[in-house]
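Hi Y.,

Following your request, here is the sequence exactly as I used it, all 153 residues.
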Amino acid sequence: MSDRCMQRRPVALHAQSDAIRGAFLIEALVAILVVSIATVALFTLIANLVRASSDALLRAEAAEIAAAIVARMAAENPTSLADRYATPESAGFAALSAAAQRLPGVTATANLPTVSVTDGPSIGTRRVIVGLQWQAPTGTAPHRTSMTAVVGP
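Below is the corresponding structure, written out as tokens. Let me know if you'd prefer a different format.
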């Protein structure tokens, strides 16, 4: 009987050792799965941040272009603004169009800027609306920005 007990005891220890190794393997696989999910989530977050950052940069660039044209209009004679900026053939519009082509998706024929010049709230002033639109290379719809100002004495 003592021989029989001695034979079973090593077998029981061996089975318990296999169970511990199996549990360790499962824990390692779960840890790898958790780390993989966290890594994918982190890369998704970084991609969204880069996209949002580039959108903000393009919005700021468009606002700067519109502000520069409005400042240029403020330095000119308000009565001639419509002639210089409102039509695509005019010199001021050509300068605006050339500046707008720094934005993605803007060409000489696509996503052209818009300029509206109307009478202002007081005599001798003009209300100016400069609109820009662009389309990111991966975007499905154009983005727009506009700036409205009253220029004149």
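The first helix runs from residue 2 to 74.

Thanks again,
Q.
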